[in-house]
Structures are given as structure tokens and as C-alpha cells.
Amino acid sequence: MSSRVEPEPEKDKDWISHATYWERTGFEDPYGLGQQTEFAKCDARCSDPAHGAPSECILPIFHAPKSQTPSPASGYISQDGHQFACVDPANIRQAYHVVFVVDNSGSMRWGDITPQPTPILARLKSEGCDNRYGAVVSALYSFWKTREGHQVNSSSLVREDHYSVVVFDEEAEARVSNDWRLTTNQLVDKLIPQQVVAGYGTNFEEAIKIAHEVIERSWSSQRAPILVFLSDGEARIGEQSIRNLCNLSVKLGQALAFYAISLGLDSDSDSLRLMVSVAEQVFQAAPTSAKGAYKGQDPPCKYFSNTMTSIQLTNTFVKISKSLPKLSSIQLSNSLPKLRASVINKTGASGRHEKMSTEWEKGATASLTGAHQRAWDESRLYAIVDWLGQQRM
Length: 393
Fold this sequence. Notes:
Elements: H1 18-25, H2 33-39, E1 44-45, E2 76-77, E3 83-84, E4 95-103, H3 121-126, H4 132-148, E5 162-168, E6 172-179, H5 184-189, H6 204-217, E7 223-231, H7 239-252, E8 257-262, H8 270-285, E9 301-304, H9 310-323, E10 336-337, E11 344-345, H10 354-358, H11 361-366, H12 370-376, E12 380-381, H13 382-392
Parallel strand pairs: 4-5, 4-7, 7-8, 8-9
Antiparallel strand pairs: 1-10, 2-3, 5-6, 11-12
Helix pairs in contact: 4-9, 6-7, 7-8
């Protein structure tokens, strides 16, 4: 053992396996064959915090470090020589919840900007969307198609990215909310034909309010939040509304990436620039742990103008799509120790020496750290118990 523990901390002590302990006691191992097999395995755990359940080394306990070459047919071998059946966390793609907030005011019906010649062009025209709004839907189609190729899990048709679309005029509503199953064409179906929410005005406050609700309701630590806000007009918005939304994301664990796109005159886009400025301030002030895949990069908060053609608009959406970091920035250390019953036990062998051990338990726990300290709350250490047993012989 690398740490010194009571009693007699000056004496070196070794970890022993479950099987060795029972062999030394001379008693029959009371555990079943299945448990004995589990106890005989290594106690290291994969360091990926995203695991919903423990993923532990499949090699025998106290094994020598295994070489990373050749690579196993499934799972991976860690840098410190442990083999796991799970996916290598260093290769896990970063997933996102992308919330699009789209202007649906009266001016979005103007026909000065029309959709790109994508595969959905005929549908857009037939649904009366040969206009600014249709150009946005066409750009969204290109964004989703750009992400589609590498965002489907190989074992299912479930996307890693989740999408929401908030449409607003005088009021706002979520036409798509935290979706991970719809195809790109099905997502388009949710947005056409162009339908009024509550009028032909432009209400940024209402749009951000609904986006705030969608993000909070759909929060997942597995997906970094991104908001893409598009409008062709000027509307007022309070700085605090944006700050509250951005602070919420930081509080929940991941700072918000914020992109604003002006489909109108740059001179009419003061509110869009304000939103980006506030989002950037909050992102920069966020703790490093909340910056996720953007750690060490410039804040992902940008304002885009000069998008008054369908080509420029589509290129902007595709640029945002391609700019998203592909790999998660999980800070991986060597494999984590997670003491299995191969080296600890709650009610079995250690219970035989409980009276003797409780006299110095407080002192012993003060010497333990990390996983050993956590384990102490549940069990006694075989290494210590074995030492006690030998003293009584």
C-alpha cells in the first residue's frame, strides 16, 4: 500500500485479493462462484464521468499493465494498462443541444431573399415559403445535413445532437423541442408552411423567454447548449433577460454558446449585438469546468451580418455547424481506483474483527485518501483486517 495506515503505520502493508484472504483464514469462502469471479477482477474504473453505470477493468486483479497494441476488438486499453469494455472516452464526440430562434414577423414574408436550390426547394415553394422565411428553413436544412453524417449512433437511429426550434413574431412558441429522433426532412415538416404565432410584430423578449424555458426544461449534462438567434429586424430586449439565460447555463454546468444572425440591415441590429456581447461576457467569466469542449478557445459567441442573400445565409449556418468542436474535452486521468470486493468487504471477513478495529477506526480513516476514504464508509480494508488477523494468531 502506498499510504500509511493504522495500526503501526510505520510497518509496510500489502493489498491482498479476496481469494488470498480466505485462503489465509482457513475458512471456506462464503461467497458464491459468481461473486468470487467478480472479486477476482481488477478494481480500476474507466475515468469517463459520463458513464451511467460503472465500467471496470476486465483483467485479473493485480495484473501487469497491458500494452495498448494491438488494440482489442472491442473496448479499449487505457494509458496505464487497464482494459475496459466501454468506448474510449478520448474518442467520444461532443454532443449539443442546438436551439434555433427564428424570426417569423411580417417582414420575413418578403420575397427579396429566396431559398437555396436544395432538395427541399420545391416543397418550400409549394408551401408558400419562397421568401425570407423559406431561405432560413433552407439554411437550417443545410445545417442539419452537415451535422447528420456523423451525429447518428452506429447502433441506432438516435442522433447525438438534440434540436429545438423557437419561432417568434409578437409572441413565440417552440415548434420543435429537444428532438433527437426526427430526420432532417421531418424537422422541415415542423416548420412549413409558414404560420403566424400571434401577429406580425417582432418580440425578442418573448423569443428569449421561450428559449430559456426550452433550455432549462431539456437540460442534459451530456449536451453542450447552443443558441442561434436569427432576425431581420430591430426589436428591444433587456440585457438582464440574456444575462439570466446565460447564467442559468453556467449554473447548470455548461456555459451557453450564442450566435446571432442578422438577415436585415446592420444598422438595425443593435439588440443582436447586445445579446452576443452579454453572452460573451458570461462565457468568459464562467469557470473553466463550464466551458466544456470550448476550453482554451475563443468564446463561441459571435454576431453575423451581411447575410442578405440565401447563399450568404446558408454559408453562415454551415460555418457555425462546422465550427462546433467534434471531440469532448473530458479531462482524462489514468484509470480511477474503485475498490471492488476483491480488496474490501462490508459484512464478510472484516466483520469478524470489527470489535478490535473500531478502537482505532477513527485514526485509520484519517490516513486514507481518495477512493480508499470513500470505501471506508462502506467496508473494512482486507489489507488491514488481514494484518489484525495475523496479530491474533
